Amino acid sequence: MWPLRLLAVGIVVWLLRLPIAWAGGRLALAAGHLLQRVTQVPLLNRFPGFQYANQNWDIVAGYFGVHLRLTVESLAVAIALAIPVGILVHRFRWLYIPTFGVLDAIYTVPSIALFTLLLPVTGLSDWTALIPMIAYAQFVLVRNVVAGLDSVPAEVKEAARGMGMNRFQILSKVEFPLALPVIVAGIRIATVVTIGIAALAALVAIPDLGRTFFDATTNGGTNAFPMIEAGAVFVSFLAIGADLVLRAVEYVIPANRVARAGSRGWLRSLAGSLIPSRVATEDPVAPQSA
Amino acid sequence: MPALTFSHVSKSYQKAGRPAVVDVTLAVESGEFVVLLGPSGCGKTTLLKMTNRLIEPTSGSISLDGTDIRELSLTSLRRRMGYVIQQVGLFPHLTVASNVQTVPRLLGWPKAKIRSRSDELLELVGLEPASYRRRYPRQLSGGQQQRVGLARALAADPAVMLMDEPFGAIDAITRGNLQDQLMQIQRRLRKTVLFVTHDVEEAIRLADRLVVMESGCVVQYDTPFNILTNPANDFVRELLNTNDVLRELSVISVRSAMDSVPPAAGDTEILGTRSLRDALSLMLGVDRASVAVVDEAGARIGSITMEAIRQAGAKGRAERIAAAAGSV
Q1: Cβ contacts (< 8 Å) between B139 and chain A: which residues?
Q2: Is the pLDDT of residue B8 over 70?
Q3: What is the predicted pLDDT for the residue at B213?
Q4: pLDDT at residue A274, as a whole number
Q5: Least crowded by CB within 10 Å, which of A129, B101, B108, B205?
Q6: In whole angstroms, how far apart are CA A175 and each of A149, A150, A209?
């Protein structure tokens, strides 16, 4: 059963964390070198942004790494929070209004304000950036967890109950697998939103890709525009890359695989999944950025 | 020991004006096919759902093989009963085979046994395992989906089957096929079945015994033939249209009214398990006064004549007249 398997995988990962970290570090270095090569590609190396990045690769790569790390950390916490909260809101409907009232209020506050408001509380640590990022992601994630669980047909749940599955089995074997496409779509949207917001964390002295804007204004000089271009390009790079990776994940989810079963060819299905379509899988609210 | 016993079972909902089920006492014998029949809102589905505790009775008790069902844990009770619903409720993210294997997996059967059992059941419901095993519910028609639903309910070989208007959402042609299949399966497996429907034809066709319900009460509980010849009140009379002789003929099997002298070769044939109504229809269609009767293997076992049908009709009429005279 997948919860037990997941737990087993988690334990193994925890036990092997040091070798995994080492391997991860080497992988990151290799990826970094590869990325640097990309900036040197004939057409791209005409852009001043890429030239700057190539010449100052350790700085840009450093910012990129921090940006990525913050995104992953905040999303991990956000997802771990959103799933239980989503399950509770789905089960106890009266929680819907209070929960979304709070989350919506947080989402409405401009991210810049959230970062600076936390300064007196958490100082110049990572948490000043992480807390607003997590809070923003909640709005998208909880909404999609609830919507996903709501989309499970009632007769399927009744059949599951009638054949003797207990509450947990119904949740893990029936509701969750069927809700997963909508939940993963939510994770994808939340990831892109979070990457955008993280750029503003430079305001609270986080050395991520947003820092390039500040470097440019403070002591850029002739390098000002290339610095900004480099920052902008790599942030977009990260966002689009994450979006594509998560769309690929969405593509292979069992419930989605079933929806494609026996229908048109794999190429048309793939193309179809890359084109933004229904509201439920796309964010109707424009993501906050600056 | 009856397989299922209902003892003064009642159910009222707080906000409703009248109770859903009122003081029902019934015994269902093992291997019996009992149909709960009645108009919408008569409590038949509520009664069914109290059997697997999807709804809890307000008062009274239900026993399975002598044990009060409240003494059993919910999950173990439900895993001992097959449950088939109108909207089927197949798991869309699982293959047909995985759907059928649900309860055996919950019970922890060995893998090989689970696989062979699901193939066996798919064959039983008329779906060829090799081609249907790997399909998804989305790729099946309504009738095929409900066959899978039936296979899924039978998977763990439950003693009791609970069926809530399983063929209600299916087109009339396919419904007939599914009813035939169900009767065939029941002849082989002899499960104890509680079947809810509001379709009178279906009820009469499938039932060993019929429970006619109205406004939460059981009005009559007897074989279809007895109910048709001795309806308890006007409600039953009107619901089942008991004055219709053809309907009465539909519950008498050819086998029970035939002469055991098989005719010479060359006559039209009819299966012994079919009803006198079908025999009459056949005889009128081919314009003959008698047809040969065959068993399931195709061997001739007797013949049925128009005269025999006429006598069966007359007997019923006599009984109805006597009953009417007795009540005056």
Answers
A1: 261-262
A2: yes
A3: 95
A4: 64
A5: B108
A6: 6, 9, 39
The pLDDT of residue B249 is 87
Interatomic CA distance for residues B65 and B285, integer angstroms? 48
What is the pLDDT, as a whole number, of residue A283? 44
Q: What pLDDT digit, counting tens, does each position of B227-263 carry?
A: 988 899 999 999 988 888 888 888 888 888 888 777 7
Token pair for residue B299?
């061997």
* pTM of the shown model: 0.81
> What token pair was written down for A129?
């950036």
Question: B48 with B218: CB under 8 angstroms?
Answer: no
Looking at per-residue pLDDT, the higher value among A280 and B55 belongs to B55
Q: What would you report as the CA-atom Rg of chain A, rounded to the nearest whole angstrom?
A: 21
Count CB-CB contacts under 10 A for residue A166.
Answer: 14
Q: Which of A252, A218, A186, A198 is nearest to A65 (CA)?
A: A198
To the nearest whole number, what is the mean pLDDT of chain A? Answer: 85
Cβ–Cβ gap A164/B106 under 8 Å: yes
First vs last C-alpha separation in chain A? 44
The pLDDT assigned to A243 comes to 93
A195 vs B285: CA distance, rounded Å: 78
8 A C-beta contact, residue B249 and residue B309 = yes
- Partner residue opposite A155 with nearest CB, options B52, B77, B85: B85
Q: From the candidates A163, A171, A260, which should be mutated to test the interface with B, based on the most B CB atoms within 10 A?
A: A163
Are the CB atoms for B108 and B79 separated by under 8 Å?
A: no
The pLDDT of residue B274 is 85
DSSP annotation of A171 reads I
In the predicted model, what is the mean pLDDT of chain B? 90
A141's CB contacts (< 8 A; 6+ apart) are A78, A79, A82, A86, A183, A186, A187, A190
Segments in chain A below pLDDT 70: 1-2, 261-266, 268-290
pLDDT at B300 over 50: yes
Task: Tell me what pLDDT residue B84 has.
Answer: 96
- Chain A CB contacts of B82 under 8 Å are 163
pLDDT for A275: 63
Complex-level ipTM: 0.84
The chain B residue lying nearest A179, using CA atoms, is B93
Length of chain A: 290
Chain B neighbors of A263, CB-CB under 8 A: none
pLDDT at residue number A279: 37
Alpha-carbon distance B49 to nearest alpha carbon in chain A (angstroms): 9
Say if CB A212 and CB A178 are below 8 A apart. Answer: no
Residues in B closer than 8 angstroms to A169, CB to CB, are: 106
Q: What order of strands is seen across the sheet that includes strand B21-28?
A: B21-28, B4-11, B59-64, B67-68
> How far apart (Å, rounded) are the C-alpha atoms in residues A241 and B200?
62
User: How many other C-beta atoms lie within 10 A of the C-beta of residue A216?
Assistant: 20
Q: Residue B322's CB: how many other CB atoms inside 10 A?
A: 12
Side-chain half-sphere CA neighbours of B115 within 13 A: 5
* A164:B75 CB<8 A: yes
Q: What are phi and psi of B259, to 5 degrees?
A: -85, 140
